């Protein structure tokens, strides 16, 4: 398996945005680590005196995935030291034991040697880190390569930066390398070249696709050939439930330091913790940390300490047991949804079956010229079903008859009822006579 090399061929200074290069160390945050020196008396930070904080203890319960049925609850009571860390300001990159835990997890999970060339930092959710990565790498107005359809949460980032998204086509196997190559090969020589490709490689939001290993390798080769960084936004990695082994991550295949990988605890521990981590080349992570130091100082200390208490008790084995339970849960939800799709939408929609994540992406069979926007936003809504029309996932707002449905929450009866209602609306588009199934 590939492992990183500490002497990277990549010149990161040519990747950093002007804004990233102009950022200066926060004069206090940059010195905070010195407080760890034994015997030093610190008059440095304006840390509030914790004796004035009303919270004096933090206890909670969490299910233990390594218990016989995985449901046994452990009681956690944070130590005095953990409580004071949880309630106080902390380092920009995160609370040290959590950062160290995450480093080891990434090295193990993605088969990468611990190496000073790459590091991790904790953020307030993946969204926070993705925004900071774009800001660190892209100058306003610079083009960015994005898979299409793309996670709708990143579209406002490109829009606010005035950065034209270059839509790369995808299918059920993920990003299409031929589309990527065509865009890069035809790039006009007088225009700045795109420096990043944004992609969600497992259980894509919205398309549900998991990119095949062959394609990942081809895309990495293109990154090397055309000199760009892959932003691997991967909140659904642990929600892989396909029957074939999970393909390796871009980060695990990367030998040149061309991947910035985003993991999130939102789908595996709790979305409200607002915790995620980014893993990748040191110069890029450092630039993102400078952004954090001037934007929000750090991710929440309290939730970092809570997450660390749980993860360190479980160990990597416990995390694997837990996430395997989570993915099994979503596989069952996927199966229910798939069955209901077959029952209600056969002949009225076309789809591929997702192997990870929580989304079904399907194309409505509509009369010529029809698209899903009005049908979903108005007619389906009136009929009592809420979903998202595909158009919101295309930066250019292209007309499409695709729809994204999330299968994470509804139970079997509710799924059947939702798709039954949708089927009625689609049939009405055909005046009650949809084409017969071949
Ligand atoms: C592809 C993708 N990226 C990022 C996020 C943001 O997640 P969070 O900020 O909760 O980590 C989401 C949330 O649904 C997502 O689907």
From TrEMBL:
Its cofactor is pyridoxal 5'-phosphate. Keywords: Aminotransferase, Pyridoxal phosphate, Transferase. Residues 109-422 form the Aminotransferase class I/classII large domain. GO terms for molecular function: pyridoxal phosphate binding; transaminase activity. It holds the Pfam family Aminotran_1_2. One of its GO terms (biological process) is alpha-amino acid metabolic process. Belongs to the class-I pyridoxal-phosphate-dependent aminotransferase family. This is PLP-dependent transferase. It comes from Exidia glandulosa HHB12029. The lineage of its organism: Eukaryota, Fungi, Dikarya, Basidiomycota, Agaricomycotina.
